[in-house]
């Protein structure tokens, strides 16, 4: 799989149509609860070209499978930011962040504590 | 490494101008707790700069802007790479054990019976927790705490309980074991008593037509029992049960992991009841003498790396019942008029296998193969009437799951094949037939991840007796506002009625059997049954005084296009004929679940049935079906201590309104029954004391208020006379019954 990806990335430079239909990616998205999970996954799935999205409440890891020919990771990340969830390297705008349900305000310590078992 | 240790020492003293990234590496254990991981390697990708986490799982590592990717690795865990762009934010990262499945269980006090707010179908999931509320000995008794299913005695002699759903008896419900139809054909009458309660892991009850994946036979609903899995069940489990009527049961499970891929489980069940009871002094046993030995061996194959999982089961059962008059001796009185007696001996052998493949790269793509063969043999006689049936069956189903464009659009498609060979002896007549079918199904599920979820399924089957036919089914769920679910469904079902196997209680009467085949139908001269089922339901969760509650209302209608009517309206005979006019079953149910205070749950339900059929003598409500039913259940648990110790209390009250007796107007006066039965209320309760997660004892009572039907057997004084009939049963025959038992497990 990795090899294929490596080879694919090499080829992309030269050949423009060797794109992975089932590319995989995983990165961290900030959130606290099942409602966040819902919101994050919806934002991903509604991006044309994303086939499946699974966000883990405990590890904050988002796993994506998407068609590189139809979308890029940047597009997906944009959509996640747009619904108000921070990534490791990008923060959602305050406006977007404020749109999440009050109990999902994952940036606040108090909310984080509430969701600890 | 040394450098780092040095830095760690120096850090508290000297303000380091150098930027550091620090963080914590943890794992989530099986209980959902965060556990620090000491000794994990943390290093910058393609560099030699690294650190090892300390006992608290903490690490600290120098940071340069060109370092982006931090690798975290530890033997036995999946290596992860974290991209770091901000050195000020402490890192908190969880490693996953390589052996772990991609499942996260959220541990909280789960409700024993849960209704889904999301699924398109009206499904209730009954967990093993609920099954423990009544020390149910087998599947037919495990619905006592569920208001959607009615449990009552089939007759006054066999002691068999039959279940009803939406006002229709079990032949109209598709009863499956791990999604393989299991209680059907010859096992229709007693099949539910052939699955011991402890073997059951959970039960899914679907109201309405259900999915097309498991076949075309379901009309009122589907019940699926998932059995214990060798990898999840206890290493050793023992359940011992004894009741005041001298019924004894023993269940033992042994599970072992043989290799990293193979596990096996051996499940043994034995029950016996050899004490004669006659509390109503009618000279007949109130419950049969019986013993059953039931053995299952399961093999589970799991290869998570390549995405394979398989189950292979072997089951053998032998069940012997004897009932009738107190002084009946089978050795001398069998099939004579010395005394009226009956024996029902069943032997059954099952093999079933399931193999599933989930593409490890693409989690939505999976293939499943199911295969089952069974041989069922019942030899029985009731007084002078003999009934034997042998049923050989093969069932197989191949299914492919995938998505269209993204995981909001799921599809299931596949083909199935069934073969049934029936060999029956009914008094002096023999009936033999072979049913076989081949079919294909396609089910599309759309879930917009928000308000709407719908499942549209269609299957086409070609059956040697039922012909070529199409089975459409549709389910939809819409959520107009928070914590609500509005559902609607409709679907079609078709089946061949095994009139004798499904109505075995007719043999314990003096009724003549009258099959009125009108136009040369394929099954006993009758045409198959076809019904449409429509339903709507609404579920709303809310908080009352800051405690969780939910209320649900549902209405279902089953419309028979064709039916094999079992007509009991003439007390001298039972007639079977195809429906001439109309027959329907309307069912309305409302239910409230309320968590009144901490660990105290209440469930109240009310059900209204309107089930009518056009008989030869006119349109009448179905006999022995109560118009009104009221149900109440309360359960309380004390706080669960560290070692799992707690007390559990549970009580269930069931009230059945008047039920119509089938007509006895043509009988002599002393054999005439009133038009309606009296009402019946029964109370069951159970107390469980859990000493630890290993050991618990329970004590309970059934029918505590000692409600009894006085004369369940008509003509008991003259069992070979013209008016002998054991089918006029509306309530308990045996009074209250107390039981106790223990459960011991080694996890």
Automatic annotation (TrEMBL), chain A:
Question: Which Pfam families does the annotation name?
Answer: HMA (PF00403)
- UniProt cross-references to SUPFAM superfamilies, sorted A to Z: HMA, heavy metal-associated domain
Q: Where is the HMA domain?
A: 27-85
Q: What species was this sequence derived from?
A: Mangrovimonas cancribranchiae
Q: Which domain of life is it from?
A: Bacteria
Sorted keywords for this record are: Signal
Signal sequence annotation: 1-18
**Name this protein carries in UniProt:** Cation transporter
Please provide, alphabetically and separated by semicolons, the GO molecular function terms listed in this UniProt record: metal ion binding
From TrEMBL, chain B:
Keywords of this protein's UniProt record, alphabetized? Cell outer membrane, Membrane, Receptor, Signal, TonB box, Transmembrane, Transmembrane beta strand, Transport
Q: Which residues form a coiled coil?
A: none
PROSITE patterns in UniProt = TONB_DEPENDENT_REC_3
Organism field? Mangrovimonas cancribranchiae
Q: Where in the cell is it found?
A: Cell outer membrane
Pfam family of this protein, just one? Plug
- Give the protein's recorded name: TonB-dependent receptor
Q: Give every TonB-dependent receptor-like beta-barrel domain span.
A: 299-704
Q: Does the keyword Transmembrane apply?
A: yes
Q: What is the lineage of its organism?
A: Bacteria, Pseudomonadati, Bacteroidota, Flavobacteriia, Flavobacteriales
């Amino acid at each position: 799989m990795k090899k294929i990806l490596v080879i694919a990335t090499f080829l992309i430079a030269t050949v423009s149509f060797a794109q992975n239909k089932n590319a995989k990616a995983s990165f961290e998205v900030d959130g606290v609860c099942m409602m966040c999970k819902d919101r994050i996954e919806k934002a991903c799935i509604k991006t044309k070209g994303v086939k499946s999205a699974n966000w883990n409440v405990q590890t904050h890891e988002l796993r994506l499978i998407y068609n590189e020919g139809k979308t890029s990771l940047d597009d997906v990340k944009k959509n996640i930011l747009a619904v108000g969830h921070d990534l490791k390297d990008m923060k959602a705008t305050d406006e977007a962040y404020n749109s999440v349900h009050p109990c999902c305000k994952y940036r606040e310590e108090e909310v984080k504590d509430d969701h600890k078992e | 490494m040394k450098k780092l240790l040095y830095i760690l020492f120096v850090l508290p003293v000297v303000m380091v101008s150098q930027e550091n990234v620090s963080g914590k590496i943890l794992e989530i254990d099986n209980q959902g707790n965060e556990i620090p991981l000491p000794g994990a390697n943390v290093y910058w990708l393609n560099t030699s700069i690294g650190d090892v986490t300390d006992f608290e799982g903490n690490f600290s590592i120098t940071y340069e802007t060109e370092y982006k990717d931090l690798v975290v690795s530890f033997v036995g865990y999946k290596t992860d790479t974290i991209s770091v762009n901000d050195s000020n934010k402490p890192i908190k990262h969880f490693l996953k054990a390589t052996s772990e499945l991609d499942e996260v269980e959220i541990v909280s006090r789960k409700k024993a019976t849960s209704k889904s707010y999301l699924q398109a179908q009206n499904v209730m999931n009954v967990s093993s927790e609920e099954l423990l509320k009544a020390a149910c000995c087998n599947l037919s008794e495990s619905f006592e705490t569920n208001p959607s299913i009615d449990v009552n005695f089939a007759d006054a002699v066999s002691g068999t309980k039959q279940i009803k759903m939406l006002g229709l008896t079990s032949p109209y419900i598709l009863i499956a074991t791990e999604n393989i139809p299991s209680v059907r054909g010859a096992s229709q009458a007693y099949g539910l008593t052939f699955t011991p309660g402890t073997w059951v892991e959970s039960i899914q009850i679907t109201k309405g037509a259900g999915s097309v994946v498991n076949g075309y036979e379901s009309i009122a609903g589907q019940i699926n029992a998932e059995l214990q899995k060798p990898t999840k069940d206890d290493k050793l489990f023992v359940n011992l049960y004894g009741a005041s009527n001298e019924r004894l049961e023993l269940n033992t499970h042994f599970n072992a992991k043989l290799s990293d891929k193979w596990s096996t489980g051996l499940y043994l069940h034995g029950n016996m009841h050899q004490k004669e009871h006659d509390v109503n002094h009618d000279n007949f046993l109130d419950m049969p003498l019986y013993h059953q030995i039931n053995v299952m061996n399961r093999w589970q194959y799991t290869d998570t790396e390549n995405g394979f999982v398989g189950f292979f089961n072997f089951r053998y059962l032998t069940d012997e019942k004897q009932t009738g008059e107190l002084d009946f001796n089978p050795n001398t009185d069998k099939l004579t008029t010395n005394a009226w007696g009956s024996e029902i001996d069943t032997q059954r052998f099952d093999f079933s296998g399931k193999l599933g493949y989930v593409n490890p790269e693409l989690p939505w793509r999976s293939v499943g193969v199911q295969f089952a063969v069974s041989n069922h043999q019942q030899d029985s006689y009731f007084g002078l009437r003999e009934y034997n049936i042998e049923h050989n069956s093969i069932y197989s189903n191949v299914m492919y799951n995938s998505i269209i464009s993204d995981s909001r659009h799921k599809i299931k498609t596949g083909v199935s094949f069934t073969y049934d060979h029936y060999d029956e002896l009914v008094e002096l007549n023999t009936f033999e037939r072979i049913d076989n079918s081949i079919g294909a199904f396609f089910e599309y599920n759309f879930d917009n991840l928000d308000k709407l979820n719908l499942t549209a399924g269609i299957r086409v089957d070609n059956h040697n007796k039922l012909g070529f036919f199409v089975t459409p089914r549709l389910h939809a769920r819409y959520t107009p506002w928070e914590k609500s679910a509005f559902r609607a469904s409709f679907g079609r079902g078709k089946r061949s009625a095994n009139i004798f196997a499904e109505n075995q209680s007719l043999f314990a009467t003096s009724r003549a059997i009258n099959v009125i085949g009108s136009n040369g139908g394929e099954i006993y001269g009758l045409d198959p049954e076809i019904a449409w089922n429509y339903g709507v339901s609404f579920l709303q969760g809310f908080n009352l005084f800051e405690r969780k509650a939910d209320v649900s209302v549902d209405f279902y209608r089953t419309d028979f296009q064709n039916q094999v009517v079992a007509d009991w309206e003439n007390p001298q005979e039972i007639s079977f004929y195809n429906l001439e006019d109309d027959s329907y079953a309307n069912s309305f149910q409302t239910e409230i679940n309320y968590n009144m205070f901490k660990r105290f749950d209440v469930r109240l339900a009310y059900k209204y049935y309107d089930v009518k059929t056009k008989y030869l003598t006119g349109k009448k409500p179905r006999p022995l079906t109560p118009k009104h039913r009221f149900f109440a259940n309360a359960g309380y648990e004390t706080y669960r201590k560290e070692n799992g110790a707690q007390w559990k209390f549970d009580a269930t009250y069931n009230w059945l309104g008047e039920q119509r007796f089938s007509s006895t107007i043509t009988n002599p006066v002393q054999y005439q029954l009133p038009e309606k039965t009296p009402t019946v209320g029964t109370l069951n309760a159970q107390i469980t004391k859990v000493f630890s997660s290993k050991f618990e004892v329970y004590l309970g009572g059934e029918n505590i208020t000692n409600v009894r039907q006085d004369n369940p057997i008509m003509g008991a004084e003259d069992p070979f006379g013209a008016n002998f009939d054991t089918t006029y049963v509306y309530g308990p025959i045996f009074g209250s019954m107390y039981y106790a038992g223990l459960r011991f497990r080694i996890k």
